[in-house]
């Protein structure tokens, strides 16, 4: 079965993609009759060297995203994963020559089709008297033994675009740019890894991986890599990649060693989430610095993709100060990141958090009977929530994400860890304040924020008194805060329904002579009934409000959890 793609047609997808980029970027123009994009200010390049690159489509933002002042003059695009036509390459060379440039450098990735087509176009242009040079970039560090075809051209090519572009912008001649670029290319290596393949529009995935495998050393055209490895953590995979890239027995290794200074490039191959990309970037920085390597600059993003392939490539380029100046030089290319001209290694990455405000001392001795009772209540609440984890997750799956139980279990584990540090405060106000901070930091999700809001607001009435009327007022304050910021109301099928029902019963605590357990028992029963009733409600707030009410046949998991918490509190107080 072919993959789904948002295209107008398989045959026209490369043209449409390039047209879309040009349509949205006034600094670019299409060359009529060709799949070629050029700088719209070609006339400003008179007397300078032009830089042309390209290759198959499907590697976006490469290569057209790197057209601009300080980078490429133009790009020739082929069909998806297909070398561009010789005629289009020649037309691009002629176009920049007619604009008054003093020569053209072709920057070509090391693939047979690209070498042949760009090479043939170069020979034809030279026959017409146009000065043209060509550099072939091979930065692949996958192969331990070099084959006749040489190293494949990968994401490191983008760094060559940047270096050559800075030199051309500075007015350096064609011969000198060619010489410097060839030297830089020798000090660079790239290695890719992917969780699965990609699929060319109109085709099936190019290779298959089992659920516990990843592909190491693959190219950018969906071709398989040098070997398959078992799925592992991000740290382990990054270590394996860097070990492979820098191993001196590897014929295509990068000569990086302790004390080396590098530009690090973490490239999304197209389908990896930004979350995973950040994790890989962090792992790479830690691993390199742990080896004594200085990271002079770090580029993280999508630079050269392989359609929707969920994977990454790591590029290391050995640099000195003159080369860094070329990397840092200004460019208007849309896809080049705004990288600060500051070393990554040695930079302070955190600052001290503000000190917590001083709390009034707890007038009740820690570890006293009140404190022990608080600990018993909290332990019962934690065990209850941990026991409900799978049930709450199952209820929550009806609304999409199925993590309500996990979120509440995370809160329970955080409270248990906190209790290990010592007895909880006996003061109700201080206890609720501590719990609110803990849940806001550790619980996560909207539930953590709502419980944090509830407890923070409930703390205020209990600072002066801890009588039953004060506890009722605390419930009122918590409910008011939840409604104010959460925008839910009773009947909206949320955790508020349980808490609201309990809060109405707890109004009886404000009456003289009210019985604590009798009123609390009624409140718990009302909360449980309200939780059960949510299965017949139409969701008016929260993620469930986006789901058709016909699909919500179970009670709201948040309401069930809130009722269970109240039941746990009651059971401890009764015993």
From TrEMBL:
GO molecular function, one term: ATP binding
Pfam families according to UniProt: Dak1, Dak2
GO cellular component: cytosol
Catalytic residues (UniProt): 221
Catalytic activity of the protein: dihydroxyacetone + ATP = dihydroxyacetone phosphate + ADP + H(+); FAD = riboflavin cyclic-4',5'-phosphate + AMP + H(+); D-glyceraldehyde + ATP = D-glyceraldehyde 3-phosphate + ADP + H(+)
UniProt keywords, alphabetically: ATP-binding, Cobalt, FAD, Flavoprotein, Kinase, Lyase, Magnesium, Manganese, Metal-binding, Multifunctional enzyme, Nucleotide-binding, Phosphoprotein, Transferase
Cofactor(s) in the UniProt record: Mn(2+); Co(2+); Mg(2+)
Residues the entry annotates as binding substrate: 56-59, 109, 114
Region of interest (Disordered), residue spans: 348-367
InterPro entries: DhaK_ATP, DhaK_dom, DhaL_dom, DhaL_dom_sf, Dihydroxyacetone_Kinase
Domain DhaL: residue ranges: 372-571
SMART domains reported in the protein's UniProt record: Dak2 (SM01120)
PANTHER family: TRIOKINASE/FMN CYCLASE (PTHR28629), TRIOKINASE_FMN CYCLASE (PTHR28629:SF4)
Subunit structure of this chain's protein: Homodimer. Interacts with IFIH1 (via the CARD domains), the interaction is inhibited by viral infection.
Function (record text): Catalyzes both the phosphorylation of dihydroxyacetone and of glyceraldehyde, and the splitting of ribonucleoside diphosphate-X compounds among which FAD is the best substrate. Represses IFIH1-mediated cellular antiviral response.
Family to which the UniProt record says this protein belongs: Belongs to the dihydroxyacetone kinase (DAK) family.
The name this protein goes by in its record: Triokinase/FMN cyclase
Organism: Gorilla gorilla gorilla
Gene that this polypeptide is encoded by: TKFC
